[in-house]
Design a protein that fits this description.
This protein is mainly α. It is built from six helices and no strands. Helix 1 runs antiparallel to helix 6, helix 3 packs antiparallel against helix 4 and helix 5 packs across helix 6. The two termini are 18 Å apart.
Length: 162
């Protein structure tokens, strides 16, 4: 790794961005483009600090992000997923190795299902007639934070203490 502290700083910034994404999605049901662009723009710095090589490491990251973008855009076209969610997941694909990205999608799906059931029950209990909008950024951010914590949490804690 080029700079362990730089990596931890960038991962910490990513965690903060995920918290902002969850918060804005709760409040406005929107994840801002500037936030998604910032997450995506941080990935090359992370690649450099992590010591990734252009081939195959960075090429694979870009490939995963492209595949994610096109698959998730299909879900957006079917009105299953919001545009901000698609962009945030695509930006996260630039940060995570493909196996961790698959784990993120699995955790996100489970968390999103629980979120949908809970919000649906609340919606019914409130006797609301309007269309239910799920702030899926919560599930995406939660899954991202889970992956970050399980991957970098112990190292970050040790770096802070040591």
């Amino acid at each position: 790794m080029q700079g362990t502290y730089i990596v931890y700083g960038l991962v910490g910034a990513l965690a903060i961005a995920l918290l902002i994404a969850a918060f804005t999605d709760i409040r406005r049901r929107q994840i801002d483009n500037w936030l998604n662009a910032t997450v995506a723009a941080g990935a090359p710095l992370f690649w450099w600090a992590s010591g990734l090589s252009l081939w195959p490491d960075i090429a694979l990251q870009l490939g995963v992000a492209i595949i994610a973008f096109f698959a998730l855009t299909g879900l957006f076209a079917l009105k299953v997923m919001g545009g901000g969610d698609v962009k945030l997941l695509t930006a996260l694909a630039l940060w995570l190795p493909w196996l961790q990205f698959i784990q993120l999608l699995l955790i996100m799906s489970i968390a999103g299902g629980v979120l949908t059931v809970v919000m649906g029950m609340w919606h019914i209990m409130q006797r609301r007639k309007d269309r239910l909008k799920i702030p899926y950024g919560i599930a995406i951010s939660g899954a991202g934070l889970w992956i970050i914590g399980s991957t970098y949490g112990a190292g970050m804690a040790a770096a802070m203490v040591g």
